[in-house]
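QA checklist item 7 of 12: single-chain prediction sanity check.
[x] sequence parsed
[x] length recorded as 477
[x] structure emitted
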Amino acid sequence: MASPVGLPDRGCNRGCSSLAPQASGKFRVCNLRSGPRALSRDNAVLPRTATVSSPAPAPDSAVPTVSAAGTGAFVRKIIHLDCDCFYASVEMRDDPSLLGRPLAVGGRPDRRGVIATCNYDARRYGVHSAMSSALAMRKCPDLLILPPSMDKYRIASRAIMEIYRDYTPEVEPLSLDEAYLDVSRTGRCHGSATLIAREIRARVRDTVGVTVSAGVAPNKFVAKIASDWNKPDGLFVVRPHEVDAFVAALPVRKLFGVGRVTAGRLERLGIETCAQLREWSLFDLHREFGAFGRRLHELSHGIDERRVRADRERKSVSVETTYVHDLATLEQCAAEMRRLVPQLDARIERAGARRLVRKLYVKIRFADFQRTTVECVADATDVETAIALLARGLMRRPQAVRLLGVGVRVDEDTAERHGQIALFDDEAGAGEAAADVRDDVVDTADESDVTDDGNQGEAPADIVDTGDHARENGGSA
């Protein structure tokens, strides 16, 4: 299936054999060593020895069976849909002369801007999201960096989300370009999640002009991993009986909430794969990682009981600034925090979220691009509390600061009672909350930009320029 934006058909980087393209689409067989069957691109599951003759899978209607959680429960059918290099794809759609050349959307190199996303032509040079624009230009001198056009991206996003809702009301947007769908009870496409995902991808390509990668699985965690398996413009299906083998082979860094620090701790314990993580008891994981140990235990076994939340539109409000010159002292950072908190207050007021605040957090990005986020329980913004969190974060790394941010997390249960904050407000975003919180103050020192879904794709719009931006909360490439 050709991409309208010139995205190349990549070979699988997991030791997989590629099958020749068929008239109906492109397929790949993934030779998962521990799986009883192989998984394909843009098709349902294929036996390892099968030849591709017809792309039409049998309907995969949900039936009572044993779930990944080990319960005899109704098996859900979840689709995770993620647009490929969304901002760049919209730009290439609107200007075909950009096709085939390295392109990024982000901030200016001379103002210490950061790449929000880039196309696959740029990625071949080593350019990626959250990279400084100056470094990106050094890696790819021919790189064209366009400023973000958020209004245009929001219009495209609305059209995409409307297509999703044609198939099910259970659509949970994570950002402008990413969403979960629960199609367990829909009658569309004979109840086949695989056929629904394929039809959605075709409609988005034909009507909006961008490509979408999809993952189909019995839960959100596995569907999210699957959608990334054959990017760009790919479809990957993991059926219920294949979840165990699929997850066992995953590196632990793929688990939600596992960033650099946690991955390093796990590696020091001799744990690099989910299969190795399974050898640890729940008791031992809880002793080593606290409440997050239970989450690690569940995910390593492919268990994720989170439901798709169509009513969950937004989880945070924040402001951030990237500085032309690094901030070298606590005093300089505190002065900036006193400027940022009133801006945050104004955004909270405009978003109607004053009564919904449950946590205050401070984000610091250091000169070496490492990041620390420190948060505490709070029902209002307060400059002195923000400065105290700032000081705690700065103690972790004796480095200058290139970016400061402050934000609040919204209580979703309170939001349900008082009304939702719109995903598409001019200064609003959407995303998932951080993972488990063990203490009143949580410090995620050195972690990369990872949401609860482990998303590390397209950088938020708030880091693409040196001005203040409303957070677009982790749209992924």
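[x] summary fact logged: Confidence is low (pLDDT under 50) at residues 1-72, 414-477.
[ ] second reviewer sign-off
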